[in-house]
Amino acid sequence: MTTILGSIFWLIITLGVLVTFHELGHFWVARLFKVKVLRFCVGFGKPIWSRYDKQGTEIAVAPIPLGGYVKLLDTRDCDVAPEDANQTYNSKAYWQKMLIMVAGPAFNFILALGLYWLMFVVGKNEIRPTLGEPTQLMQEAGFMAKDQIQAIDGQAIRTWSDVSLNLITAGIDRRDVEVLVNTVTGTQTNKILPLSQVPADVAEEDLIDYIGLQGYRLPVTTQMGPLNSELPAAKAGLKAGDELLAINAEEVLDWYAVVDVIQGIEQGPIALKVLRGNEVLEITVPDLIADPDDPNRKILGISSIPPSESEQNYARSLFFKLSYGPIEAIPEAYNQMVKITSKSLEMMWKLVTGKASVKNLSGPITIAQVANDSVARGFAWYLSFLALVSLSLGIINLVPIPMLDGGQMLFLTIEKIKGSPLTEQFEVKAQLIGMFMIFCLMSLAFYNDILRSVS
Fold it and tell me: Could you please report the per-residue DSSP string of 104-135?
């Protein structure tokens, strides 16, 4: 329940900030060109709060936090007093109306730049992109455990997010990539990852697993450490030093697999195969019990032998803070914004052309969950997430679909070319088509969100 409430709260905060900034762009440029703003509203629906500023603009907040709008004085919408005729939107020059429309998305890009700058100044806790034991294509290509990825196709790689961005897009294209790595011996070498060998029926969400990409994890064996005599495992006859081979006939190769299997068990009995010395034993534990420290968690009562001190020191060395000074952070923020924008446009084009699956579309539920998760990871992570969504909002609003800013810009351009305003009938039909398209996209995004939630 706490997670759900947290997700809803951070969804409202996220969309509230981004929508307010987006509409502020339209509002500010409209005021700059002396266009009268009738209402500045964050959210949709009947306003639950409003007040008027000194220039007569109603500042309002509505209950549905999935957007907002700025209502401008326009002779096509209402009767306009003669003294206000020069303050109407439709009386302004083409270039002024275009700037008013583009200002919303532009402000989202400006906000993203500022958020990335602040993220770099604050510093974001990261882990160096270091490989665990590669499998499948990674193994066949000669990658080794503890290889640190430095570049992919000449693009510098600093974090696991960089790795995912580059490999997912290349994987969708089934394009081989050149990967520069630092080996555990300290040498640099280039290796070719043959993504062209990925079968066409492998979905995007399965690409990373099929490639065999795994991050480094502390090696923890299945050998058991000291046992609590009051817990089920010890009572069933398990002893410190026993090596777990299988749980309920499912082979376990390391302690991470042990944890995964136990988490999937709802009730006993639990059949364990263990190696004690040279003898393989079958031991049955009647059931799991509630963890004394966490009643919502069930436990078997076993623990692992800690990794060696050298492995622990190596793991600690992989953690770093990605940060820059206020001046250095400016070009870094710009480069980050350009990179994410480029990858977003590339993915959008793949969706349009059918190369990428529509399963990649996400809606408010996923945004809420990721927002809550990013807050839990730290302030800098939330800033990064907020910047990403701000860029997405700016890009989407530039798409030439009626109801979006890009659609209004398209209408203005058509009017400029034909030399006369579009008919009211045409605009109404276009708006209905745009509304239907947005409804379909939102429905698909919601559907994908629900599938992710239940899977």
Answer: HHHHHHHHHHHHHHHHHHH-EEEE--BB-S--
Task: Specify the DSSP element, H or E, that contains 297.
Answer: strand 294-299
Write down the catalytic residue from 23, 251, 332, 424: 23
CA 381 to chain centre: 11
Same domain, 318 and 172: yes
Nearest of 99, 91, 95 to residue 27 by alpha carbon: 99
> Which string of DSSP letters, residue by residue, matches 278-295?
TEEEEEEE---EEETTEE
Q: What pTM was estimated for this model as a whole?
A: 0.85
Whether 23 is in a domain gets the answer no
CA distance 32 to 41: 19
Same domain, 210 and 274: no
Last residue of a domain, one of 281, 306, 331: 306
- Is 441 within the bounds of a domain? no
Q: Residue 322's pLDDT is what?
A: 92
- 46 in any annotated domain: no
Please say which residue of 272, 288, 322 terminates a domain: 322
Owning domain of residue 212: 124-218+307-322
Determine the distance from the C-alpha atom of residue 253 to the mean position of all C-alpha atoms in its chain, rounded to a whole number.
Answer: 31
In a domain, 152, yes or no: yes
Task: Look at residues 273, 264, 274, 271 and name the one whose alpha carbon lies nearest to residue 298.
Answer: 264
pLDDT for res 385 = 92
CATH classification at residue 293: 2.30.42.10
Report the distance separating Cα 436 and Cα 350, nearest Å: 22
Q: Are residues 199 and 155 in the same domain?
A: yes
The residue with tokens 């020069």 is 86
Residue 168's φ and ψ, nearest 5 degrees, are: -65, -50
Using N-to-C axis directions, what is the helix angle for 94-122 and 329-353, rounded to 10°? 120
Same domain for 286 and 248: yes
Give Cβ neighbours of residue 314 (< 8 Å, ≥ 6 apart).
146
Rounded mean pLDDT, 226-252: 86
- Look up residue 371 and give its two tokens: 């927002």
Residue whose tokens read 């992989």:
318
- Taking the C-alpha atoms of residue 69 and residue 170, their distance in angstroms, rounded to an integer, is 38
358 within 8 A of 442, measured Cβ to Cβ:
no
Q: Into how many domains does the chain fold? A: 2
Beta strands in 354-444 (DSSP E): none
Q: Which helix (H) or strand (E) holds 439?
A: helix 424-454
Predicted local distance difference test score (pLDDT) of residue 117: 97
Known catalytic residue at 230: no
Taking residues 197-215, report their average pLDDT. Answer: 86
Q: Do 300 and 240 fall into the same domain?
A: yes
Q: Are residues 201 and 259 in the same domain?
A: no
Model pLDDT for residues 86-109, shown as the tens digit of each residue: 888 888 999 999 999 999 999 999
